[in-house]
Description:
This protein is α+β, with helices and mostly antiparallel strands. It is built from three helices and four strands. It has one domain (12-120). The chain has a four-stranded mixed sheet, sandwiched between helices. The chain starts with 11 loop residues before the first helix and ends in a 27-residue tail after the last strand. The mean pLDDT is 87.
Amino acid sequence: MEKEFLMKPKIDFAFKEIMAEEQVRIGFLSAVLKLNPKDIKETRILNTNLRKEHENDKQGILDVRVLLNNQTEIDIEIQLSELRVWADRSLFYLSKMYVEQIQAGQDYDAFKKCVSISILDFKLLSDTESFYSCFHLREDTRHTPLY
């Protein structure tokens, strides 16, 4: 008897296809971001190509880019091969998403929250055995969030 081929969800193509389903996105985002699924009324897939303004700008193509009904933008990335510069790459993508939100002449209150979710098939942090980590921009001594 032949075994049926089942594509693993870690494969980039399969992951993107799974995330194409809104109920899957809502379930995934509520679990990872610790939100009540009832608080996510809608998600929308956005263009995954990050804008290049100059020919020499670094290209960025996100795996899955989602907009929530509260205008929060989320980048969901899956990375199977070890990439030691993952933190730098993730921050680069997040920064590009953030600056794309504003045009010349707009007030800075145009900015909306951006979130990056990384699903890694390698150990990025050597100081923990935990599979889940959450980072924020904070003041060093008082730990006050910047945003």
